[in-house]
Amino acid sequence: MSDRFLLACRSEEVDCTPVWFMRQAGRCLPEYRAIRKHHSLLEIVRQPELCTEVTLQPVDRFGVDAAIVFSDITLPFLGLGVQFEIQSGVGPVVESPLREPVDVERLSVFDPHSDVAELFAAIDLIRRASAVPVIGFAGAPFTLAAYLIEGRPSRRFHLVKGFMHQHPGAWRRLMEQLTDATIAYLAAQVEAGAQALQVFDSWIGALSPSDYRASIQPHMERLFGSLPPVPTIHFGTDTAGLLPSLAEAGGDVIGLDWRIDLDRGWEIVGDRGIQGNLDPVVAAGPWEVAERQTRAILAAAGGRRGHVFNLGHGVLPHTPVDNLKRLVELVHEETA
Amino acid sequence: MSDRFLLACRSEEVDCTPVWFMRQAGRCLPEYRAIRKHHSLLEIVRQPELCTEVTLQPVDRFGVDAAIVFSDITLPFLGLGVQFEIQSGVGPVVESPLREPVDVERLSVFDPHSDVAELFAAIDLIRRASAVPVIGFAGAPFTLAAYLIEGRPSRRFHLVKGFMHQHPGAWRRLMEQLTDATIAYLAAQVEAGAQALQVFDSWIGALSPSDYRASIQPHMERLFGSLPPVPTIHFGTDTAGLLPSLAEAGGDVIGLDWRIDLDRGWEIVGDRGIQGNLDPVVAAGPWEVAERQTRAILAAAGGRRGHVFNLGHGVLPHTPVDNLKRLVELVHEETA
């Protein structure tokens, strides 16, 4: 078993730069799409054998250096008592979005062990079957709140930001509850076998740095301060202006999207690991462009310890399987 | 007539910090909505008296220090031979989006004087009637291309970015043609009476810095190098990671969105003016929050010459008129 991924997360020496891809399980893989013909996303998550199969498919196909548990960041909504469905081509759609302070009171307390028990059975199976380290993950409180308040994927996040400013007390209670839920959820994943954790604050880049510092950062600091001692990756998109605060909040590795040069981003976050940051559109495009830009990213990393190669966000469904396979080979060869 | 706006654009001494708001004309103003009941956006643009009335409404209402010509960045599409409509609640929708290299060949050459003649009549009228400087504007080539290729406002800009990578030759021809069109369009606005120009590269933040440098920056440098000698503002959103390159491309003033602290942004772009950068959601929210964050922005500007106060993007339709009026007063008072 190669543990170059875990070594890189701790900024230790590696034989070559590790690679994995956000959304590597699913989407662009024909063997995944064959399973999805007969099973919904939530059905896969609830059947440990199936979840294990889907989680390990990209390890076999692409030769990536980590397996990320196949799941969805909205999974804790089941335990919070929030009805939702994952609509094809749209994403998670919440039946009754939170719009008033009183709506926060109707959330239940999420108990991972009883609410999503099958997932931990899956993680246990994955850990036994996997030749590479297993990453558990969760959505960060702001990103979860964005889904709960907007009700569906949003372009501008006006509703969640409006709620934050209009109802600061209810917002704080919501953040506290989602932070508690996320800590419990991630701790349970480690207990079940996850060897590293990624926190997806995917939509945090909608906020100004001042709003982040005032209304988000204290909760993120508590979150990172309460996790079990495994390597943690703190990821968001549109974060170029937030990086100083986001890095301060926590994470052994900071995940960058493609909107900042890797070396500039690394300089800002300082002495820790960095993950990224090829544009997923480039990964899906002509191989020559993907190759050229990957070489440029490796040059920006400059052989420094602590680089985990990844895309700047999730794999796009139309990405050629072959591009991802070649990306893994390219990064391994160039950094060996 | 106060010319503190023009002075600030040139980083000269002012009596107090000038203020204007992107999308100040229209949207949140009841007197504008009354006109829109009987006239479409394009009808207003085509009737110089009506266009002048709508352009000057916010100057009277809010006391802003500049008037921006009421128009839309898609207006040149009329001359490029692209059929489109501005759909309520959606934005510009193009009938036949460009998807293949051959589609670029079907664009006509935009001739501002014949294609949008009424707009220049409007600018002439506005200039005579306005007590404050008049800003002309245009969309930047990438942002125009995003509309032409995506066909409608997009969340992720996969199609335009895919086109750029798959068809570099056609992309270059498209950028050259849109750059030519934009230069001619902005020059004609100055000829008609515009005293400053803002270039809206609203969606440029979808790109990585390396794609910006390779595929956009040369065109933007030519654009800014070819404009008449009036103050220019270079604006985009999601640009925190692009700022070094964007500033290098040109503009006397760099317009920031709210995703970066004003002082950090100013430090990056260096010795020139800065515009921004209150989050429009905050401007639309509780007054106390808008006031607190505005004071923080003024503190970050620190009384340095060259600050033009604005929102980080356009005024939202639900913004209370009173908030905008009070913001103008607050900025003027605090910086006098």
Structural commentary:
The structure is a homodimer of 336-residue chains. With 336 residues, chain A is an alpha/beta fold. Chain A has helices at 4-9, 30-36, 41-46, 48-62, 77-80, 101-105, 112-115, 117-129, 141-150, 158-166, 168-192, 209-215, 217-225, 243-249, 262-269, 280-283, 287-301, 321-335; strands at residues 67-68, 84-87, 91-94, 134-139, 196-201, 232-236, 253-255, 273-278, 307-311. Chain A has a single domain, classed as TIM Barrel. The first copy, chain A, has 18 helices and nine strands. In chain A, the strands form two sheets. A seven-stranded parallel sheet of chain A has the order 1-4-5-6-7-8-9. A two-stranded antiparallel sheet of chain A has the order 2-3. The longest helix of chain A is centred in the middle third of the chain and has 25 residues, at 168-192. The two termini of chain A are 17 Å apart. Chains A and B meet through helix 10, helix 12 and helix 17 of A and helix 10, helix 12 and helix 17 of B.
Key features?
alpha/beta; TIM Barrel; globular; 336 residues; homodimer; 18 helices; 7-stranded parallel β-sheet
